[in-house]
């Protein structure tokens, strides 16, 4: 694997280019501020008068309509939600990608379409014209962490992908943008758009968000049903999880084992696979197939058209779960 560092990227490749950040949520706000702090020309495209418009104004950006931002910019950063991007692209971006523009030096100037997640390109929900550079720089972490590390002089690791290289300079532009966000301080590696999409969706569903949440709730329920105090179950199954995750993050799985008690080491190694057994592994394989075949993308698109009824129902159920009530009480009593 080639890892790109600061020495491999040059922000000077972006000299004179105007960057439009469409969307000013977690990633949009963080990346826009990092681009600006790296000396780049940045405007923000948002819905006039909306929350993002007001926030970007407050942060000192020139804020314009998405249509104007896409028209004026050399680099268009698609940083709205995955579900909203196809509509944003069709209404505001695609009309301004129809043809190349003449550069002041006489040559053709190609616009660049920039993503931080490969979802809409992988599933062909967005189909850019061939004369457009299509790139991705995907940070491995949320926008808030991205910004905090940048300010500290550090950076998140990130993935770089090139879907279309119409100009012949797409990779150096992507590396320059990665450097402007601080990613090359730690390291940037390259992979295809679809691999980033498949791995990201699967990890969110099977581990990072879905899997770990269901594991914690199931463990909590098991203890409470056996007569264990809810507060004790909460501390053991949820609160202490951070301690283990911090060790996993810093030293890996084997490093984590070296820091726990012999009892925890033996019990965890020998019995852990009974929880994540054959059935769980079969479900993981099925989930990945659904992602790779586009079934999850179609399901998500269908739900988005209906205003996400399944998600709203799941959220209501989650808020009413005993672990949430216990958590609120424990945090209040212990000032956590």
Could you outline the blueprint of secondary structure elements for this entry?
Blueprint: E1 3-4, E2 18-22, H1 26-37, E3 41-45, H2 51-58, E4 62-64, H3 66-72, E5 75-78, H4 85-93, E6 101-102, E7 108-109, E8 112-115, H5 119-122, E9 133-139, H6 143-151, E10 158-164, H7 170-180, H8 183-186, E11 188-190, H9 193-208, H10 210-225, H11 230-239, H12 241-257, H13 262-275, H14 278-292, H15 295-305, H16 309-319, H17 322-334
Parallel strand pairs: 2-3, 2-5, 3-4, 5-8, 8-9, 10-11
Antiparallel strand pairs: 1-11, 6-7, 9-10
TL;DR?
This protein is an alpha/beta fold.
Strand count, sense and barrel status of the largest sheet are:
9 strands, mixed
Unreliable runs = 102-107
How do the helices and strands follow one another from N- to C-terminus?
EEHEHEHEHEEEHEHEHHEHHHHHHHHH
Rg, alpha carbons: 23 Å
Tally of helical segments:
17
Strand order of the largest sheet: 1-11-10-9-8-5-2-3-4
Helix-strand makeup class: alpha/beta
Which term fits the overall shape? globular
pLDDT averaged residue by residue: 95
């Amino acid at each position: 694997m080639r890892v790109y560092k600061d020495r491999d990227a040059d922000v000077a490749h972006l000299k004179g280019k105007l960057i439009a950040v469409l969307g000013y949520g977690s990633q949009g706000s963080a990346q826009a501020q990092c681009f600006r702090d790296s000396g780049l020309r940045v405007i923000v495209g948002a819905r006039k008068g909306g929350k993002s418009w007001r926030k970007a104004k407050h942060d000192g950006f020139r804020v314009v309509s998405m249509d104007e931002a896409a028209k004026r910019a050399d680099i268009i950063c698609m940083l709205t939600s995955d579900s909203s991007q196809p509509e944003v692209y069709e209404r505001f971006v695609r009309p301004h990608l129809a043809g190349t523009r003449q550069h002041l030096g006489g040559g053709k100037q190609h616009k660049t379409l920039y993503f931080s997640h490969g979802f809409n390109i992988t599933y062909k929900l967005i189909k850019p014209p061939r004369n457009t550079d299509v790139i991705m720089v995907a940070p491995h972490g949320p926008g808030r962490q991205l910004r905090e590390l940048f300010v500290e002089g550090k950076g998140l690791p990130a993935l770089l992908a090139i879907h279309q290289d119409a100009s012949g300079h797409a990779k150096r532009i992507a590396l320059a943008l990665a450097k402007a966000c601080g990613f090359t301080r730690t390291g940037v590696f390259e992979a295809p758009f679809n691999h980033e999409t498949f791995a990201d969706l699967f990890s969110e569903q099977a581990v990072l968000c879905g899997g770990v949440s269901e594991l914690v709730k199931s463990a909590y329920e098991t203890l409470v049903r056996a007569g264990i105090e809810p507060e004790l179950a909460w501390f053991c199954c949820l609160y202490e999880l951070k301690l283990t995750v911090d060790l996993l993050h810093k030293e890996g799985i084997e490093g984590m084992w070296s820091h726990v008690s012999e009892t925890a080491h033996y019990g965890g190694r020998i019995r852990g696979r009974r929880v994540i057994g054959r059935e769980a592994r079969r479900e993981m394989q099925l989930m990945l197939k659904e992602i790779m075949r586009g079934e999850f993308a179609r399901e998500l698109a269908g739900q988005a058209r209906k205003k996400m009824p399944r998600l709203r129902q799941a959220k209501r159920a989650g808020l009413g779960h005993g672990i949430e009530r216990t958590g609120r009480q424990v945090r209040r009593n212990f000032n956590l």
